[in-house]
Every structure is written in structure tokens, then in C-alpha cells.
Amino acid sequence: MPIPFQFCQSLRRGQLDMSLRSRNPTVVAQAVLWILLRLVLRLEPGTATLPLLMDSVIQALEELEQKVPATKASHTASVWLLFAQDSGRHDLLRHVLLEGQNLKATKLDPQQLSPELQGLTLDVAQHGIRGRQEYGVVLAPDGSTVAVEPLLAGLEAGLQGNRVVNLPLDSTATPLDAGATFPDTGAVVPDVRATSPRVRDVPPDGTSADVGAMPPNIRATNLDVKPTSPGVRPVSPDVPVPSPDVQASSPGAKARSPTTVDSLLVVTLARDLGLAFLQSPQTWSHSGLGTEGCWDQLSAPRTFTLLDSTASPVTMAFLNGALDGALLGDYLNRTPEPRPPLSRLLSQYYGAGVAGDSGLRSNFRRQNTAALTSAPTLTQQVWGALILLQRLEPTHPQLRGMSQEQLFEVATNAAKEFTEAFLGCPAIHPRCRWGAAPYRGSPSPLQLPLGFLYVHHTYVPAPPCTDFASCAADMRSMQRFHQDTRGWDDIGYSFVIGSDGYVYEGRGWHWVGAHTLGHNSRGFGVAFVGNYTAELPAKAALQTMQDVLPGCAVRAGLLRPDYALLGHRQLVRTDCPGDALFNLLSTWPRFAANVKPRTARRASRRSKREPPPIIVPATGLQ
Questions:
Q1: Helix, strand or coil, per DSSP, at residue 532
Q2: How many alpha carbons lie under 13 Å from residue 369 in its C-beta half-sphere?
Q3: Cβ partners under 8 Å of residue 536, min gap 6
């Protein structure tokens, strides 16, 4: 139900109280979102005592939901968003796209909320970078770092229902104030959205009849299930229903300016992605997209330091938050009343999966997004976001004087780089994330690109690791074995693949490992956690080894395009990587079938000194 303009105006003047409880639960829930935002103005920086964990954010939302129980759904996302605007940067684009339907004030005494919640709110209200320190981010249970601002923006956009925004025809006209009209269209800014088409019915518990039939890493969730909404793929890949704007950007067709954008994608990803690629044309392919960082500690994190001092604002944490916001915002957008409380939704998403669906969780954010969008559709969203921002802020330092052709070129490069270099690559936890001990000695650099990928299983630990805590513990255990028992400088593998959806950095892309005796400088050694003598790794882990990891390495110039894949046993006397896994590897296109296993050949002098492979952990086979 649309909110009357007078009602919105009264909300902006702060004239409503908790009598709003009698209104639509989602409308009232949005009121709760503004409460926390208003609190930021009363706080002093650095007052938070809660650790910067996603669990702390969920705790804050749960406490706020308990203060206003009549909201039922208690979608408290935009509380932080207004805080971010009022406490510093004024985000006009987000103001236009989201604020028109929000409740900006309800009477709630700030003292009713704990000081810890108030302090946390201030700490995560606004994403930013100062020097090498990144602010407004938290550590999630899956080991990923997440920017809270784009996450909450996506949740707020998803709650609003109407996502299709008509763009002004003249991108160089005068800027808009809140409540002004587009001269070309006559649409009032808070109500610029077109009527949202009917969406697919979703049961109140959030489950969908077709979700259970999908693989765990492929979601039926759709960033846009509405054929008239721009920018995303339809539900069925066999029945494409591209929007007119998407069709215009097809190969061989002349680019046509978008006339609509999806507010959910704009406020989470498209706008910031476009601005990141506006810095300089020379940096389009080296923009620091998705830069990682390290926490001061993992148990109670307080400070997050980026690994690259030249990183763009579109860091790994920002992209994680943007994708989570887009995926969860779409979920909320498709879910009828009564919607689940945000605290429960986030607990499930950063836990075992939303509504019991293990595929809809943070571990698989890249796979879910990659299955739902593409470079051409994202190009239109980024282009449209830049057009709208240029329309709202014609003096914007990065957009001033930019032609439509230039904006289209920026959008094309941004979308291509994002889909190929980010969505097309696996999520890799850096060494500091799993608690690696320092390298002993001086590492030897690899001469890149390399020509081989050597596949291992760890044998011990034998059980697959299925969550961050167990995978990180396994990495530390293997490193201790390799350093303290074997006497090596570091963990031997280049990378290790868990069954939790993540890859763990060992020696990485640039340093010689200790994984395949006599061949360590010629290829990367990648191991699956587990014993795969009689069973196979998880399907998502196998896909990472077969396609995602090597494909990413080839694009980055780290692995030769004609690389070959070999099992450990083809080069060293060992049963690694296990019979079941090796038999599967032998069916992969890149498998080097001409190199026969060496399990029956004469071992090298060094391998003779080792116990038989059947009783030696594969982690010790150099």
C-alpha cells in the first residue's frame, strides 16, 4: 500500500509516535530502522564495547526488535543508513531511492538501548577507508568480512516492494531536492518507482517450492523475478526474458541508454562499482577491486587493516556486504507478510541457511550472484546508476563533464571486471584469517605463469571441514605438522579447499611450495581437506578445483592457458589424492593422461626415508 505524501512529510518532521503500531507491520518495521540512525547523533566515536562481529550486529537488531515488539517483522535495517547520512556524508542518491517510503522518527528513548548497542551502531554506521584501515565492517561466522552499510541498504530496498525506478531523460538537468519533480517525467522523487509487477508467491516461512530441487550452491532466489524489472536474469535459464535495456547492450547492438534501474542493485552495488572505475581509465583493470585485509584478532575483532594501501573503496568487505544486501533484499522483496525478523534472517543467512536452505547463506554469495546476473545486465545497472547520480549531482567531481558514451564505457569495464575477476574467482581466505604462523626463513619466488596444477588430499585431517572454525583449525594443524614435524618453512600447499565454500591461502600464488617433490616450482599444489580414498569431495569444492580456481588464475596471468592438471601420485610415489578422487580427475578435460602414476616405480632417495604413504598423512608428502 503506497504511503501518502502527507504521511511521509509528517514522518520527516518527527511527529509520529508508537501509535504507528496499528499500521502495516512492514511500515512500522521501517520506523524501527530510523530509530538507531537517530541515536548516532548522540554518540561519541569509540564508545562501543561489543566486538566487531556479525553476531554483535544481530544482537543489536534483536535488542531493538524487542523494544518495539509490535513491528512483528522488525526490519531494522535503515536505522544505520540515516545515521550514516546525518553523521557525515549525505547520500543524495540513496535519499531519493529509499527515504521516500521510510518512517524517519518514532519516539524511543535512546537510554532504552544498551550503551554497547549504541556504540556498535556508531562504529558500523558508515563504510570508509582511512589510510589502510577500513571502517564499518564486521567479521562474519563464515570467516568473511562484511561491510554493514551496503548490507542494510539492500535490506531496506528489499522491504520497499517497488524496485523499478524511471530514469530522467536529461542527465544534465538541474539537481533534485527531496520531494522535487523530474521535469521530464513529472514524477515526484519519493514516488518515482513504477508499480512493481506481481512477483512469485513465497510462503510465509520464506521457503519456495522449487528451492529444494536446486543444488546447494545454485539458488532459485532471483535478483529480479519480474520480467519488467531491469538488470537480472529470469528464473529459468532456458527461457530468457531480457529487459529492453539489456537487449540494447547485446553484442553487435548499439548501446541504448537505460530508462529504468533496479533500486536494490543501485544502492547495494551498481553506484559504488561505477564510481570505483571512474578514478582513472588507466586503472580500470587494476583498480584494487576486492582488496582483502586482516583483523587484529579473531575472537574479539576491533581493527581491520587492508593488505593493499592503494585499495579502492570497493573492497572485499564492501562487495561481500553488497552481495549479501542484494540477495537478502530480493528475498525480502519476494516474501509476503509476515516477514521474519531481521535478526533471525541474518542469523540464518550467516549460519546454516535461510529457512533451512543451505544454499542461501553467505558461504555461497558469489555462486548465487553469478547464477543470477551477467556482465551485460550489470552494465545497464551501473550505467543507469551513474546517469541518475549525474542527474542528481551535476557538479559531482567524478561525473562532471562525462558524456553518455564515457559513462557507458566505464559501466562496461566495471561490469566485466566485476563478473570475471570477482564473481569468476573463488573466495579465498588470506593467511591471517585462519591464524597462520609466520614463514620460517625466506620464501623463494615462483616464475609465473606456471604450467601445472597438482591435486592432493590432506588424508589427515580425514573428515571434510564444513565450517570456518573447523577449516581454520585444520589449516593451523597442518601448518604445525609441516613446520614442527617435517621441518619445512611453512605449510606445503599453495592453497587448500574446504567443504565450506572457501579456499584457504597456503603459500599462495607467488611462492614456491612443498607439495610435489621435484615439481614444486613448476605448478601450484592444491589440496582438498579430507581423505578421498573411497569418497569424493563436495560438489562445490570439486567445481572450485576443476573450473573456478584455475580459470581465475589463467585470467590473472598466474597459470598458463594450456596448463595441465595432475594427481599427486603421477609424480611422486604416493596414494594421494586417493583412489576415488584420482579416478574422477582422470575424466577431467585438463587431466594429463600421458603421465602415469608412480606408485609402483622406484622412489627417490628422500621418499625412501619416509614411511609408506598409506600411514603417512598426505600433508607430509613433499
A1: coil
A2: 32
A3: 542, 580, 581, 584
Q: Using omega within 30 degrees of 0 as the cis cutoff, is the peptide bond preceding 338 cis?
A: yes
Residue 184, all three cell numbers: 521530464
Note the pLDDT tens digit of each residue in 496-533: 999 999 999 999 999 999 999 999 999 999 999 999 99
Amino acid at 132: R
Other Cβ atoms less than 10 A from the Cβ of 272: the count is: 23
What cell was used for 312?
A: 579502492
Is there a domain that residue 198 lies in?
Answer: no
Let me know: does 365 contact 320? Beta carbons within 8 Å: yes
Distance CA 379, CA 247 (A): 11
Show the cell assigned to 335: 516474501
**CB neighbours (10 Å) of residue 582?**
22
* pLDDT tens readout for residues 294-303: 999 999 999 9
| Angle subtended by helix axes 148-159 and 316-334, to nearest 10 | 20
Q: Which has the closest alpha carbon to 270: 199, 134, 189, 369?
A: 369
Angle between helices 54-67 and 25-40 (to 10 degrees): 120
Grid cell in block for residue 217: 550452491
Tell me the CA distances in angstroms from 453 to 407, 523, 527, 568, 576, one per residue in order.
40, 5, 10, 10, 14
DSSP labels, 282-336: GGTTSS-TT--EEES-SSS---EEES-TT--SS-HHHHHHHHHHHHHHHHHHHPP
> Per the domain annotation, does 597 fall within a domain?
no
* Among 247-261, 275-289, 303-317, 454-468, the range of highest mean pLDDT: 454-468
Shared domain for 372 and 437, answered yes or no, is no
Q: How many domains does the chain have?
A: 2
| Minimum mean pLDDT range among 56-70, 281-295, 441-455, 510-524 | 281-295
Cα dihedral: 195, 201, 206, 210 (round 10): -130
Q: Which residue's C-alpha cell is 529470469?
A: 234
Query: Domain of 289?
Result: 54-167+261-424
End-to-end CA, the chain: 66
In the structure grid, which three cell numbers stand for residue 223, read together? 535478483
SS3 state of residue 193: strand
Instruction: Tell me, yes or no, whether 324 lies in a domain.
Output: yes
11 is a domain residue: no
DSSP 190: G
How far apart CA 532 and CA 514 sit, in angstroms, is: 21
pLDDT digits (tens, 9 = 90+) for 1-26: 333 333 333 333 333 333 434 445 55
Report DSSP state, residue 546.
I
pLDDT band at 90 (very low <50, low <70, confident <90, very high): low
pTM confidence score: 0.79
Polymer length of the chain: 622
Q: How many CB atoms are located within 10 Å of the residue 587 CB? A: 8
Please tell me the distance from the alpha carbon of residue 199 to that of residue 261, in angstroms, as a whole number: 17
* Residue where a domain terminates, one of 424, 447, 480: 424
Residue 436's nearest CA partner among 246, 312, 298 is: 298
Q: How far apart are CA 437 and CA 440, in angstroms?
A: 9
For 584, phi then psi, to 5°, come to: -70, -45
- Is omega for the bond preceding 461 within 30 degrees of 0, making it cis? yes
